[in-house]
Amino acid sequence: MNKYIEYRREFHHFPEIGWTEIRTSARIAEILEKIGYRCKMGLDVLDEKTISFETLDETKRSKEQERAIIQGADPIYVERTGGFPGVVAELDTGIDGPVTAFRFDIDCLPYQEPKRKGFRPFDEGYISCNDGNVHACGHDAHAAIGIGVAEEILKQKDMLKGKVRFLFQPAEERYNGALSMVEKGLLDDVDYFIGIHMALTAEGSPLPSNTICCGCKDFLSDDQVDVTFHGKAAHPCGASQEGKNALLAACSAVLNLHAIAPHEAGMCRVNVGIMRGGVVVNTIAPEAFISIEYRGQTQEVSAYARKRVFEILDGAAKMHGMDYTYVDFGEIPAAQSDDAMMDIIHRAAAKVSWFEKIYFEGSIGGTDDASVMMNKVQEHGGIATYLGIGTDTTNTLHHPEFDLDEDSIPAAIEMLVHALEEIHSI
After folding, report:
1. In what order do the strands lie in the sheet with 87-92?
2. Of 9, 21, 213, 362, which is least packed with CB atoms within 10 Å of its CB?
3. Whole-number CA gyration radius for the chain
4. What is the pLDDT of residue 81?
5. Cα angle at 242 between 238 and 243, to 5 degrees?
6. How far apart are alpha carbons 422 and 426 in whole angstroms?
7. Which three-class secondary structure state does DSSP give residue 346?
């Protein structure tokens, strides 16, 4: 078996949700340093101001470090994380030239992977061993591809100029991971930026194996808001008139949020992904919580969605005679790949026989916080792309039974090495 596929299966077996990717980070650093890189880790690659220490406190970090060691990570590398995930490695040729940065996200999703016969991860022994965590978005493959590109391009160091930077980013699914690396200054000097993702779409259909799209231009901005309605408890058969049912306010909000009309200027998407509330069946619910995500294709659409979201929240609270509080996690901006960078990918893909069909432009159909990095590079005159590697899958992205065609991994590595050769050859 190809060793990079083996790495993918290892990462799949030990999935970790955003901000807990300690074992993954430790293993990536260990592998890269054994082949000649010197890695930066933890707060050497993350900006502290962008990290919520309410969710990543010292106790939590210590627990995740202990788990990583139990699951086979080298204690030396675990200690170097300081309990903070993320790895950066850089190939410095020592010759003046361009700087290229890759983003490889490494976190998983909080789902339960099914343990059933006929599902390859189960049959072949790399099913998730962390209950409630699963690589259902291909980030295990992304990490393996990143290691592969780093190893293969190192073999050509004497024929290259400039610098190649490998960013193994935590917390893409939970956001702020990319922002944290940007705020650390890791994109400040980058001329070329490449982000990748498995299983995007082109011409309205999922990209199958043996295909590639060279970039996407349909990123949606994304904002996430956690809302708590504050009602008043009462007995439903006693002084029920004194109660204020926070669950009713939340339900009113949810139904109307999902009825927000589309906008002619571009895609608008609103979703309530979490709802909970109440304390006991015989008490009017004093509090209720909902988690909202809204996306817009343009700044105009995003502003429209935000305005409607808060109008609905205000109305639901007023209708039921209560207040609400919220936490806004901030907007992930939209982005567009540059044609010039997509051209480089197109020429690189044409050199790889595995790619039988090359789409110049594909579709992400959503959001990825790689857009924060893309915008940063483009702001100072660099060019960027976010490309899709075609791969046959067992299910859609974000499905607990997602698995992919592993032959796409060495093909992606070969293609990206060709892209680097064009950019950095002396």
Report:
1. 39-41, 87-92, 163-169, 99-105, 192-198, 383-389, 211-213, 357-359
2. 9
3. 23
4. 97
5. 90
6. 9
7. helix
According to the model, what pLDDT value does residue 239 have? 81
Q: Count each helix (H run) and each strand (E run) in the chain, helices first.
A: 12, 14
Closest CA to 284 of 229, 228, 233: 233
Q: Which residue ranges does the chain devote to CATH 3.30.70.360?
A: 221-332
In DSSP notation, 140-192 reads: HHHHHHHHHHHHHHHTTGGGB-SEEEEEEES-STTS-HHHHHHHTTTTTT-SE
3-218+335-424 CATH fold: Aminopeptidase (3.40.630)
Amino acid making up residue 58: E
Task: Give the CB-side neighbour count of residue 81, counting CA atoms within 13 A.
Answer: 33
| CA separation, residue 92 to residues 44, 143, 413 (Å) | 18, 21, 19
In whole angstroms, what is the distance from residue 187 CA to residue 185 CA? 6
Helix (H) / strand (E) element for 290: namely strand 287-296
| Rounded Cα gap, residues 334 and 425, in angstroms | 32
Match 């893409």 to its residue by tokens: 172
Characterize 116-141 residue by residue with b for buried, 16 or more Cβ atoms within 10 angstroms of its Cβ, and e for exposed: eeebebbeeebbbebeebbbbbbbbb
Beta bridge partners of 216: 362
Dihedral (C-alpha) 143, 293, 399, 8: value to the nearest 10 degrees?
0
Torsion sign over Cα 173, 391, 354, 25: positive
Domain spanning 221-332 has what CATH number? 3.30.70.360
Residue 410 to residues 30, 148, 152, 154, Cα–Cα distance (Å): 21, 8, 11, 16
pLDDT < 50: residue spans in the chain: none
Q: Are strands 383-389 and 192-198 parallel, antiparallel or unpaired?
A: parallel
Token pair for 363:
């579709």
How many Å apart are CA 168 and CA 87, to the nearest integer? 5
146 forms beta bridges with: none
